[in-house]
Design goal:
By secondary structure, this protein is of the alpha+beta class. The protein has 3 domains: about 150 residues, Acyl-CoA dehydrogenase/oxidase, N-terminal domain (Butyryl-Coa Dehydrogenase, subunit A, domain 1, Orthogonal Bundle); about 120 residues, Butyryl-CoA Dehydrogenase, subunit A, domain 2; about 140 residues. Helices cover about 55% and strands about 10% of the residues. Helix 13 runs antiparallel to helix 14.
Amino acid sequence: MKSYEAPVEDMCFVLEAAGGLDRIAERSGEAGCSPELARRILTEAGRFGADVLAPLNAPGDRQGARLDNGAVHTPDGFADAYRRFVDSGWNSISADPAWSGQGLPSLLGTAVAEIWASANLAFSLGPTLTQSAIALLGAHASADQARRFLPKLVSGEWTATMALTEPQAGSDLSAVRARAVPDGDGFRLHGQKIFTSYGDHDWTANIVHLVLARLPDAPPGIKGISLFLVPKFLIGADGTPGPRNDVRCIALEGKLGLHASPTAVMAFGENEGAIGELIGPPHQGLAYMFVMMNAARLAIGLQGVAIAERAFQLARAYARERLQGRGPDGAPTAIVEHGDVRRMLLSMKAKTEAARALTYYVAGQSDLSRRLGDRIARQRCRDRVELLTPVVKAWCSDIGIEVADTGIQVHGGAGYIETTGAAQLWRDGRIAAIYEGTNGIQARDLVGRKVRRDGGLAARAFIADAREDLWALRPSAAEAVLARPAERALERLETATNWLTDRTEEAPALAVAAPYLRLMGTAAAGWLSARVGILADRRGGLAGQVAAARFFADHVVGDSDGLARIVMTGAPAILETAPDLF
């Protein structure tokens, strides 16, 4: 696979044009987060990604993680790369300084995380889960739990997992059967969890499992789930790992992709019981776990951006080198000269840039929701993040798969051969539409909880803000070619939103939830792509950004017309088809 090079110039521009880095830097305590600092950090991250992580990507895929005599081993070089990653301070970049974090905005942390995922997605999953766990414990751990666990997780000395899924309880967590029995000041847990990414590995001295389980007096359903902190090694009085807990990996899943990432089947309490601590009050575990799950969902949307970027770079390099056909002078020509290949490359770049803009925008809103001085403004940003989290997760992960698929097509027959690396990117990225709640579940969440529950207020506020922003940009006649399709898409989104919120029955709305999410993603990315393209055109020297924005406006944003029509007319074809016809 060709080497990876972080697109630092593009990333820095989108941090400002879509993420609002300059606005975040103005907030109290963020004066040091200048565009110049961001550029230096991304440059160094890009060097680490290219020199340390990317060379391990293809070998790690071939070798895979393995389980030997109860111990999990990651591929050669991964443990050393993680030590270098931690020693360089990358794990703590956005963490709270109270726990020895660097306190930089999550927007910048998002851009840095894109580099890790592009360079080596399988490696990046470990730190990603730890970051999500830090967010959960920072919000809901007791003072004592935070003191004992957060510094180790922030530094990267320990990692964390999310232990939710069970053989009979996938997306339906109300079916969780793992049990926790009170024992003195703690609890003993018994049960099995599957699909646990980095459930065991050879990177760190300890692993902190965040486990959903039921207490003996738990009511049925999701209201009876509690959250427990279960370390691989029990923590001694001095804060160091002590005896081994009753937790072990009993199998690793054989997967389509991400072979280097150990996806573990974990057994808790096969003997005397795994000792754990309750986080928060009993029976509130699912609500608390959603902090970690939502952080992970945004990270998965970013994985779509990362896979798309890597696939684009790989396809671009191949198209420049591969000779096929002859030019007007009769000489062999590179396939990048062919119109259809340029169309595919433009499609890949345009979708990647649009997904990046959407992801950075939401990360910036998250920062502003904590840092703006006005309470109402902070709440508006929180509402925006809540609305768009399922869109980022689903729309951007779908884009990553689409772009990786197009990358195989650019390679032609060579793309179907593993040695080119194009197939690995598709295999690795395909899971993003499935884990942390399938994209269909994200669509139901968007329609059922984020749009219909408040009568569409948050969605209409977003539409109004995007329209106002396009108007405030006052695009010239030449720039209007980018703005007009985005304005039309926002109109279609508003019409479809009104249709959804006017329905008294939920079934028709949920039946078309997936095309509605696709519509919202297309409209939101269309606005941001137009914004980035207009500002890039005015700045000059960013012709690639302008070309990507124009392609997105001309070839992608127009999908909003058909998507809106499907939302408003497509439910009967689904609801009137009886299940027994399948």
